Amino acid sequence: MAGQPERVTVTVGGRQLSLSNLDKPLYSDGTTKGDVIAYYSAVAPALLPHLAGRPLTLRRWPNGTATSGFFEKNVARTAPDWVRQVDLPVPGSSRDRDTIRFVTVDDLPTLVWVANLAGLELHVPQWRLTPSGEPAPPDRLVIDLDPGPPADIVACCRVAVLVREMLDSIGLATSPCTSGNKGMQLYAGLDGTLDWQQTRRLAHEVAQRLESSHPALVLSSMDTRARRGKVFLDWSQNHGGKTTISPYSLRGLPVPRVATPVSWEQVEAAEAADDLRFAPQDVLARVAAHGDLLAGGSTT
């Protein structure tokens, strides 16, 4: 019918999906929705272990990244009945009726369905669901490194090494991952004995101690006015109701960039921001050559 969006029906993992507007550009370089779906399909073996069992907060750009995207927590009403959904309380709410119905991306068909919504960014918490659908204790600690200009990701690398040394001293091994934007995340696996309040407190203590010893470079305060030229260690993402961009997620920037696991050797050797900026094709080549650098580590 004239004027209707073009659709194609595909079978993915035994599920039928109706995909639309595959030729629609979502990035300024011409990257289309079809390209986005192709990337997520190809990177799925590395990506899915980081998403499975975690309620998803999606950031969508149905009209491309030249427009304002929006966050979506409640699962779309058009979700197929085979998409796993879970009702969870709204963070901070004391009323039982205040719930959000999340989707969890546990398999390739669900990932493709999400990508078809122009869901470019995939955000997840630091905990997984129990088999009964309740939040489990966090299985990882995350510290988000956010540089205040003129500081950049190279400054984040210097601070990342300091964070690694401090967490190493208390027996927590860390793994670095670029944010795909201007900063990076450091993940440390947990054994489930700490709740999110204890995890957040630990991350806050690390940030405060590093700020005390490196005040010209590190900031632990939420005060945005104090961030110029420093790297803010965002400990707050360990709150049970907060999320972090997933490893291997695209970002909603003018051109496609990916949150990418990197080695400590790359972190230590970085001399320019472009050393740690990765496009989808770069990430697929890295995974093909090296596998998932976070596999079996602190986020899976």
Overview of the structural elements:
- This protein is an alpha+beta fold.
- It has two domains: 7-124, DNA primase, PRIM domain (Alpha-Beta Complex), CATH 3.90.920; 140-290, Alpha-Beta Plaits (2-Layer Sandwich).
- It contains six helices and 13 strands.
- The strands form three sheets. Strands 3, 4, 5, 6, 7 and 13 form a six-stranded antiparallel beta sheet that branches. Strands 9-10-8-12-11 form a five-stranded mixed beta sheet, with helices on one face. A two-stranded antiparallel sheet has the order 1-2.
- Helix 1 (33-51) crosses helix 2 (108-116).
- The radius of gyration is 19 Å and the shape is globular.
- The mean pLDDT is 94.
Secondary-structure map:
Elements lengths: L6 E6 L2 E6 L12 H19 L3 E6 L9 E3 L12 E5 L9 E6 L3 H9 L2 E6 L15 E8 L5 H16 L5 E5 L5 E6 L6 H18 L4 E2 L11 E4 L9 E2 L18 H6 L10 H11 L10
Parallel strand pairs: 11-12
Antiparallel strand pairs: 1-2, 3-4, 3-6, 3-7, 5-6, 7-13, 8-10, 8-12, 9-10
Which properties best describe this structure?
300 residues, alpha+beta, DNA primase, PRIM domain, Alpha-Beta Plaits, 2 domains, 6-stranded antiparallel beta sheet, 5-stranded mixed beta sheet, 26% helix
